[in-house]
Amino acid sequence: MRSRVSLIAETLLLAGFCVALLVWIIPAQTSEGGFGLSPAFLPTALTAALLALFVLDGGRRLVSRRAEPAYPTGIGALGRIIGLAVLGALILRFGGIVPAGAVTSAAGMVILGERRALPVLGTAIICGATLWLAFG
Hints:
5 helices, about 75% helix
């Protein structure tokens, strides 16, 4: 079982990464737009939402005092996530944003344990269609 210290450390690590994104990484990697919304708007909004979710989830788990199971040992999950990121980057480079979003979302679901074809294909189609409408 996980200790309270590990729950606090996890929450602080994830929240700290979001704060670094908001304060340093996103402003350094985006420019001011001349028309419409700033290019930093969407990543900033999504990062702020992630920050809120991390803090709320961490607080909920600390207040509930329910025993949290320990993470499985080994680095297999880390390797699968890194592989997924590499796959997404390669598809983005050679195929574009629409196939990268569709394939990466479906592959991510499979990596997380989803085995039913309909949710995996539905997610791929919805992500691909949304990216096509936004960027296509």
